[in-house]
Amino acid sequence: MSSAATDTTARAIPVGRDLTLDLARVVCVVLVVFVHILFTGVGRAPDGSLLIERTVEAQPWFSAATWVANIMPLFFVVGGYAARAGWRSAQRRGESADSFVRVRLARLARPAVPLFVFFTVALGAVRLLGVDPALVDVVAVGVGSPLWFLAAYLIVQAAAPTMMRLHEKYGARVLLVLLGLALLVDGFRYIVVGGLLGIQPVPPEGYGAGQELFGVPNIVFVWLFAQQVGFFLFDGWFSRRSWWQLVLVMTGGYLALWGLVSLDGYSWSMLGNQWPPTTPMAVLAVIQAAGLTLLHRPLTALMETRAAQGVVFVVGSRLMTIYLWHLTVIMILIGIELLLPMPMPAPGSAVWWWTRPLFLLVVLAVVWAASLWLVRFEAAPGPGIPRFPGMRICVVAVLVFIAPIIAITTYGLDFPLAALSLACTVVALWLTGSTRATGRPNT
């Protein structure tokens, strides 16, 4: 990276900004991409036949690794920190809560527009071409799986002004209430629905309204809990703890996590507890907030270097584009490998494992090339006058945007849901007047 670029990066950093949180977000997104690469085990057996499997899940260490590698709770913790900082700045500027929500909706919905256009056109085309529906479903379900984050993150960000008022008034009691509600939802789902009513979970490879449907309320309770932990992170609760206290928090958290997953219903894999979210995700949020604080000093030292600042700034300006498009790019690259006479190592072989980091670099490079055009949708919304002012219309817009996305996560992506999501996203942006951008990417 040139010195001019790094000088620009340095000048663009707001005074007082904690760059370790930007670093955490970048690392989390790259880790998500790499994990999804490990999940897509497509290759050829020695006899040349096609192999398709979820390679990493077959490893004996997989479940244990997810206790550390599932960093989705940290997204919401860091989001809570950013929301608290952003809300304070908005209040100083005299902005209202509905303006805060409009900006958050635009930052999530605008990057989703080209993705839903692509899904709608692609799934419509394969319908017309008569491609095998079973094959289409496998690919579509895969590329649609990360979309749950859009709905969950917008729900908690839209509630942030209210939750911050509760945080300031009641403090840790809000955490206890949210944790209790999450446990009640889990108890109803596993004991009443699963035990007394006998409704079974949907198989891991399938989608539908099985037992999981009754855990959907925890999209609110669990992720609000994680965001609330972010408020405590911003307020300095974690930074005021000594290193041994943070280690104690993490140790106690993992013991609580072990106790929870020992109960019937919870998965020993943290990915199995991610959708719909269960109470172990809330516990992980506390563990990860303590861990991030424990690493704050070395991470701060790293972020004092121009190289790290430049990478984090550039990648951070494209985080939503990378997150939304990486699985689509992975599937396209695998499709190209299958069509061309290229050697493909068998999933799980030594060659396959050693080539995964290289494949990660290729995926990131392709997403980066696409982002040169797509990044305009990730630009911050302009300050224009709202078409329909007031919080009520913001609530309607949020519900319009998230409803089809939750349906995709529950039932799987298909042409009708892709088209509906596109229409709902456009309507949500129109209702809130979030159709213009400053041309400056979000960071």
Number of helices: 18
C-alpha-based Rg, rounded:
22 Å
Sum up the overall morphology in one term: globular
Secondary-structure-derived class: mainly alpha
Beta-strand segment tally? 4
What is the share of helical residues? 55-70%
Architecture blueprint of SSEs:
Layout: H1 3-12, H2 19-39, E1 41-44, E2 50-53, H3 62-69, H4 72-92, H5 97-129, H6 133-144, H7 148-158, H8 160-170, H9 172-196, H10 218-235, H11 243-261, H12 279-294, H13 296-302, H14 306-316, H15 319-339, H16 350-374, E3 379-381, H17 391-411, H18 415-432, E4 437-441
Antiparallel strand pairs: 1-2, 3-4
Structure description:
The chain has 443 residues and is mostly helical. It has one domain (3-44, 51-441). It is 70% helix and 4% strand. The chain has helices spanning 3-12, 19-39, 62-69, 72-92, 97-129, 133-144, 148-158, 160-170, 172-196, 218-235, 243-261, 279-294, 296-302, 306-316, 319-339, 350-374, 391-411, 415-432, and strands spanning 41-44, 50-53, 379-381, 437-441. The chain has a two-stranded antiparallel sheet. Strand 1 and strand 2 (50-53) form a beta hairpin. Helix 4 (72-92) packs across helix 12 (279-294) and helix 11 (243-261) packs antiparallel against helix 12 (279-294). The longest helix has 33 residues, at 97-129. It starts with a helix and ends with a strand. The model is unreliable at 1-11, 203-208 and 437-443 (pLDDT under 50).
